[in-house]
């Protein structure tokens, strides 16, 4: 919890990518909201992800959560796009049941490269990412969620990689900018 004195809470549920852009998001939003992060490597099909999510949302106070930003990333690597969609569907349903007043934002998975030194796009992995990101859009439409499309923010962008999956300071700042913009739009508070 960043500042529990602020009644309105934004909860970030994600993985190492979320963990790494979260400080930049805090710098940009901490003055207005209590920011909460639940970063884990648990895949969408891991039942303990649900237990952890329930615990975090409960600690926040069901009615105080104004938005939940979900970025599950690459961790369900062995799941097909159909399986991923099915588990994610159940997960979104649960979150909406727990915090029905909150807006839900689903982030797409960022692009993957083959690693250093050139960080060339990994087309095979990105085809899997693209299929799962398509499922994110379909679920967002089903549940009326906003989509934070982070894939194009990172795809074919030079100078932002720490490794084939993670981002350096420049990349995390780029992602934080995109996340904050999407959240403000979802809350109807986009600056003009």
How would you explain this protein's 3D organization?
By secondary structure, the protein is α/β, with parallel strands linked by helices. 46% of the residues lie in helices and 14% in strands. It has a five-stranded parallel sheet, sandwiched between helices. Strand 3, helix 3 and strand 4 form a beta-alpha-beta unit.
Relevant terms:
single chain, 5-stranded parallel β-sheet, 192 residues, alpha/beta, 5 strands
Order of helical and strand elements: EHEHEHEHEHH
Helix residue percentage: 40-55%
β-strand number: 5
Tell me the structural class: alpha/beta
Question: How many H/I helices?
Answer: 6
List the helices and strands and how they pair.
Elements lengths: L8 E6 L1 H14 L4 E6 L7 H14 L4 E7 L9 H18 L4 E5 L15 H21 L2 E3 L2 H4 L14 H18 L6
Parallel strand pairs: 1-2, 1-3, 3-4, 4-5
Helix pairs in contact: 1-6, 2-3, 3-4
Briefly characterize the structure.
The protein is an alpha/beta fold and 192 residues long. It is 46% helix and 14% strand.
């Amino acid at each position: 919890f960043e500042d529990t004195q602020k009644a309105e809470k934004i909860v970030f549920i994600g993985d190492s990518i979320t963990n790494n852009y979260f400080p930049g998001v805090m710098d940009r939003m901490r003055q207005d909201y209590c920011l909460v992060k639940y970063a884990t490597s648990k895949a969408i099909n891991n039942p303990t992800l649900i237990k952890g999510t329930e615990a975090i949302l409960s600690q926040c106070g069901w009615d105080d959560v104004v938005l939940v930003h979900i970025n599950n990333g690459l961790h369900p690597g062995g799941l097909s796009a159909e399986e991923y969609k099915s588990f994610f569907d159940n997960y979104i349903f649960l979150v909406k049941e727990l915090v029905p007043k909150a807006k839900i934002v689903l982030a797409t998975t960022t692009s993957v490269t083959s690693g250093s030194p050139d960080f060339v796009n990994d087309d095979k992995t990105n085809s899997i990412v693209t299929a799962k990101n398509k499922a994110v859009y379909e679920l967002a439409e089903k549940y009326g969620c906003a989509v934070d499309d982070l894939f194009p923010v990172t795809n074919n962008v030079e100078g932002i990689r720490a490794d084939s999956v993670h981002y350096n300071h420049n990349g995390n700042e780029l992602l934080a900018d995109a996340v904050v913009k999407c959240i403000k739009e979802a809350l109807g508070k986009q600056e003009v």
